[in-house]
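Technical appendix A lists one of the benchmark inputs used to test multi-chain prediction within the project. The record comprises two sequence entries:
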Amino acid sequence: MDDKRRILLGHGGGGRLTGKLIRETILPKLDRGKLASLPDSAVISGLGDTIAYTTDSFTVSPIFFPGGNIGSLSVHGTCNDLSCALARPAFLSVGMILEEGFPVEDLERILASMAGAADEAGVEIVTGDTKVVPKGSADQVFINTSGIGRVDVSAGPSDMARIEEGDEILVSGPVGNHGMAVMLSRAEFSFDFELESDSASVWPMVERLCELGPGLKFVRDPTRGGLAATLNEIAASTTKGVRIDESTIPLDGSVVAASEMLGIDPLQAANEGKIVAVVSKGLGSRALELLKDLTLARGAAIIGEVVSKDPSRVIMTTRIGGSRVLSEPSGELLPRIC
Amino acid sequence: MKSGDEKRTAQALVGELRQLCAQSPKTLRFMEVCGTHTMAIAESGLKSLFPENLRLVSGPGCPVCVTEKRFIDHALALGREHGACLVTFGDLIRVPGSNGSLATHRSEGGRVRVVYSPMDTIAVAREEAPRPTVFLGVGFETTSPTIAATVKTALSLGIDNLYVLPAFKTIHPPLRVLAGKEDLHGFLLPGHVSAIIGSRCYAYLSEQFGKSGAVAGFEPLDILLALRDLVRSVVDGPPAIVNAYKRVVRDEGNPAAREILFEVFQPSDASWRGLGLIPGSGLAFREKYARFDASVHLPVEVPDAEDDPRCRCAAILTGSMTPDKCGLFGRVCTPEDPVGPCMVSSEGTCAAYYKYGIG
């Protein structure tokens, strides 16, 4: 096929195709030394405190969905990338690309929800930029945010290279809600589920977990590709095995129902208010204790551990006691046929 | 059911399966006919619990997998030459044709709409009018009655830009072909299809071919229960058809759905990927509904399409080979860059092996 030079939807799906695009097309052009390890944030020293600095772009469709909109999402997304570097979010920049003809009223709603999300996360929007492009050149509104955060150097650092056999893996609550809520609010689906995005700043949870000090090995917000992508990243990058137990993974009933209807694995659906944390062996229950009274961490659970068996793979014990591979999602999420 | 209960019940059923299989000196080979079963079995890790001499191979019941490459070529030609809006279930999106897929067609500006219910095609056709809107008609008896109902509704509403490109299949003709295979001891029969056609209609499997069959649901326990019944009827005899999915499947099926189906369609010959031409295994429009047939009313030239000769989908679709034995599997053929539809369909055997590990 000679269509290989075109960008397909699957290139943005967070799976192997995305990885290939980053490695083969983007990194050779942009990498000057820090980008190649693809961290959630670049951690830089020499500015007084140790700071984390990150950027993210938001193109979610539809722009309004149950539980949030592109504005709140663009604040949470960048705050969460900072939080995963154990950095308390401090300042944000916002760049907006608007399509000609976009209703001002909708823009106001988006800005209001950005402000609300920023206030709640304790982060200040200090600079920004707006561009308008001709109708048809963009889909309503795209937003880029960059952020700077102060790193808690007493904990971590959050680094996959520190992960060892026996480490425990926890997830901060039910997974798949954001991805499934956005998917269901797309126009082509006429299902009616009580399902909201979990979009939120995860810093309050990370701040608590920082009390584990160096026992907090790694934190990631499982966005595109969901829990499955994050666990596979851990397995691939550490070349150790990841063993998880399906019956311990928190899932809301509405997400299970929606995923059965759509034929989409909730473990591969995006989250934007959850974290996956890897902590030293024996610290799992202490981590849960630290999160216990946070509403944000409702349903947090230890879901598995790092093992020597099955290197670079994620093996899941299923509900009925069988075992199988939990693979990373490939490209675009597809609904099923019957 | 609570997770702990489910696990205990599964263990009990696996225990029974092991005891039954221990009574058989030979390896017992069964085929799960339906692609949804293939996925459910892989997803629940069922095979990791099987005794050594129990084998389950996949069959031709993934509608996308048995659809020929030429069908994708035909659909893309309708888009390119007639500017048609192509309406489909999501599974077909990345299935490769001879020159591109629906995904690449869409990236080139072609109109492709994904629906969850065929009935949604009516709303799409209204939005797209006067552009011809073509539903890509792939599926078994589970899907075809809802498409028949959509066509009937479109006729009564006078929607004149809606068409269907038919590549429907029916399950009995290929089952008759496979029932003759000596190395297969029985069939795990499809739950959704049987909800329409019933369980009684499989009697020929035991009566003419001496093969057992069990209609199964899609939860891991449904499948284990049906497998236990299946193994028991082979080990203890005589060959029989068991309905192990009674909460959904009635012996006589759903006559009302069949009535709508056969009001709109009639049996026709159909060509299957991997199995070739099977007489009477497809569905064609009856005269009253012939104006919906995109292959007649939107003429295009579609040359014959050859499959990649290295692709072993044919052997895999008939249970003669497992995907990991195919030279392309996981190397040349991946879900991102599939050679055959079995790797990209959400019910495909190769996709199940790739996603959930070698079973």
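The first strand of chain A starts at residue 42 and ends at 47. Chain A touches chain B at residues 1, 3, 6-10, 15-17, 20, 188-191, 247, 261-263, 313, 315-325, 327, 330-332, 334-338 (CB under 8 Å). Comparable benchmark entries are summarised in Table A2.
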